[in-house]
Design goal:
The protein is mostly helical. The protein contains 9 helices and 8 strands. Helices cover 64% and strands 8% of the residues.
Length: 286
């Protein structure tokens, strides 16, 4: 077991290059996004390297998919609707990683450095939250490239423009399954030599199903209560309060709750299935 000083030094060594690369690739906004990600990475790594590794898998895969065909006309048109892009600010970092950060911070205070229990109700809840945001991000980044118009999740007979909150497609759904499976498999591989196969299968299924459920919740909340606005110049519906395409013109609120933005929807959709998984593990399995 490495000493405390060695772990702290390693946490700095592994986080600084990641932050530098993310900043250079414009995956994080400076300075708030970089600072938030730096604190997050430090706490995760000190609590347990697995927490850090799981979030890195989300961040790297999501950043790559954000850049994938970024300049294509289809994706550019779809992203005109979205409130934020791939240049993540402090609020996006917290919305995507707030649950696992809270879990890691709790175990860091409770158990000390690198002593977080990996098969624990809170650990499964934290990993599930990462599966949710991974599934949702993969779905968004790949779903907008669908050859056909997405369907509205609250009325599947209704077609909506690409990028619309609550829009679902076959490609997006498959990407949701892929993103959730990706995180569940990574978690399962880390647990392989630690717990019995029966518990390993349960852990995989809970994280996988939690990730899919959270992505669906995200779409449903985005379609129903998330604030949407209309540009008075081009009449496009958007999540943006100022429409960049029309010279940062102020948009008009037309739907949803004005105080509910994409960050709140993302955090809520990650929190709900994480809490459900926590209850299942705590009250039924353990």
């Amino acid at each position: 077991m490495p000493t405390m000083l060695q772990i702290v030094l390693w946490s700095i060594i592994v986080n600084v290059p990641v932050g530098f690369i993310a900043l250079k690739r414009k995956s994080l906004r400076s300075p708030d996004g970089v600072i938030a990600a730096g604190i997050l990475g430090l706490v995760l790594f000190l609590s347990h390297w697995l927490y850090w590794a799981i979030v890195i898998l989300f961040f790297v895969s999501s950043s790559l998919l954000t850049k994938y065909k970024h300049s294509s006309k289809i994706k550019q048109e779809a992203m005109q609707f979205a409130e934020k892009g791939g240049n993540r600010d402090m609020y996006q970092v917290l919305a995507n990683s707030g649950v696992i950060f809270a879990v890691a911070f709790y175990f860091l205070l409770e158990n000390g450095i690198w002593n977080a229990p990996l098969f624990h109700p809170l650990s499964l809840a934290g990993i599930t939250s990462v599966a949710v945001v991974t599934a949702d991000t993969w779905s968004t980044e790949l779903g907008v490239l669908s050859n056909s118009s997405p369907r509205f999740i609250l009325n599947l007979k209704q077609k909506v423009p690409r990028g619309t909150s609550g829009g679902v497609s076959l490609e997006g759904t498959l990407s949701t399954l892929g993103g959730s499976t990706f995180i569940a498999l990574a978690y399962g591989m880390a647990l392989y030599s630690i717990i019995p196969v029966s518990k390993l299968i349960i852990a995989f299924l809970l994280v996988f199903m939690g990730g899919v459920m959270g992505s669906l919740i995200d779409s449903a909340l985005g379609a129903s209560i998330q604030a949407q606005f209309k540009c008075p110049s081009c009449n496009k519906i958007t999540e943006k309060r100022f429409h960049l395409r029309c010279g940062r013109i102020k948009t008009m609120h037309v739907k949803g709750l004005k105080v509910i933005n994409n960050d709140i929807v993302n955090f809520t959709s990650a929190l709900i299935p994480s809490f459900v998984v926590y209850l299942i593990v705590d009250y039924i399995l353990i």
